[in-house]
């Protein structure tokens, strides 16, 4: 199974919150400036459109659970197929993954 092997702190800085991807002792705000996103032009943060906000939230959920896009798409299709709220079903499916439970 594939997974992201790059810098974990960069993902947390991109999302603007601590994603708890590193099991370190120090908090993330003592390690770096979390207000700035990574990259050469990270100091300037423009206003996001409605689609941009939705995309950031989707990426945040993907990165918290360590799921790639194809797996996430399959989980979404399964959650949409089930009865009830699709968002709650999706989170329930993601939380019952074996690597998340262990």
TrEMBL record:
GO terms for cellular component: ribosome. The keyword Transmembrane does not apply. GO terms for molecular function: rRNA binding. SUPFAM superfamilies: Alpha-L RNA-binding motif. Pfam families: Ribosomal_S4. Residues 3-95 form the Small ribosomal subunit protein uS4 N-terminal domain. It comes from the Bacteria. NCBIfam families: PRK05327.1. Belongs to the universal ribosomal protein uS4 family. This is 30S ribosomal protein S4. It comes from Colwellia psychrerythraea. The lineage of its organism: Bacteria, Pseudomonadati, Pseudomonadota, Gammaproteobacteria, Alteromonadales.
């Amino acid at each position: 199974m594939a997974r992201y092997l790059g810098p974990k702190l960069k993902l947390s800085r991109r999302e603007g919150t601590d994603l708890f991807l590193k099991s370190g002792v120090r908090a993330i705000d003592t390690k770096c400036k979390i207000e700035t996103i990574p990259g050469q032009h990270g100091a300037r943060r423009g206003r996001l459109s409605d689609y941009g906000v939705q995309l950031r939230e989707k990426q945040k959920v993907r990165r918290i659970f360590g799921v790639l896009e194809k797996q996430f798409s399959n989980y979404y299709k399964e959650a949409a197929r089930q009865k009830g709220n699709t968002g709650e079903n999706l989170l329930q499916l993601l939380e019952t993954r074996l690597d998340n439970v262990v």
